[in-house]
Amino acid sequence: MTFLAFGNHTVRSLINSPYFQLKKFLLLVDKYKNDKVLLKLLETKKIAYQLLDKNDFSRYSFDKKNQGIVAFIREYNYVSLNSLLKQKSNHRFPLLVMLDGIEDPHNFGAILRTCAALKVDGVIIATKNQVPVNSTVIKVSMGGVAYVPVCQVNNLLEAINELKKNNYWIVSTVCQPGSQEYNQIEFNFPTCIVFGNEHQGIKQKIIQKSNSAIYISMSNNISSLNVSVSCGIVLARLVSQWERNELKNNHNNNKS
Fold first, then answer.
1. What is the pTM of this model?
2. What DSSP element (H or E) covers 56?
3. Do residue 146 and residue 22 come from a single domain?
4. Per the structure, how many domains does the chain have?
5. Nearest alpha carbon to residue 68 among 50, 89, 48, 95
6. Residues in Cβ contact with 201 at an 8 Å cutoff, skipping those fewer than 6 apart
C-alpha cells in the first residue's frame, strides 16, 4: 500500500535510505524548480517527480507542514533478523531495541528518532499488535526512520531465542521486584533492550525470558513515563557509558 512522507528534511533523508522504495515526488515549483541538487538526485535514482504550481499542489489534502515536498512511498523494506545480526555494529557492542506491542505511531516514531540519534543498530517489532512503519511514524521520527533498520518478526519470543544464541543479553524495562536501577547496570555485552506496550507493559513471558530487568527511579508521585521518554533515558545512559569506557581505554592505551 502506498503511503506518504512530507517535509523537506524528512523526505530528503528517505532518498538514499535502503529501507524505502519511493514511487514519486510532488514538488511545489516555486520552491524546488531551481534545486538542482534535489532534482539531479531524483533523476539519478530514477524517481519520478512533478513540479506543480500552488493551485495544483493545493488540490491534494496534504499535511499543512508539507513544505511543498511530498514523497509517495511504494513500500518500506523491513530487514530480516538474520541480516540484522550479521551487520557491523555502530558501537563497542551491538545494540538492539525490541518493542513489545507499541500501538501509538507517535511513540514508535519518537523511539525511531531516538534510536537514529544514538546510532542503535536496529529495532525489532512483531507483525501483530504493533503499529508498522507508516506516514505518521515517518513524520514523527523526523527522518530518523531512514537510518535505523526495522526488523519485523512473527514471534518476539523466538527472536529472543535467536538473539541469545548470538550472545545477546536481553534486558526488559519493568518496575517489579528484582529489577535493577537502570544506571546501576554495566552493559558490557551485546544488548537488546525491550520496551513494552503503553498500557500493559512487557508480556510476562518476555520478562521471564530476559536475562535481567531494569527500572527508572522516579519521585514526586510519578508512577511511570511515556515509553518513548523511557527509551531515550535508558539508551542515552547505555551509549554514554560505552563512550566513556572507550575514551578511558584509549587514554590508558596512549599512556602505556
1. 0.92
2. helix 54-58
3. no
4. 2
5. 50
6. 100, 174
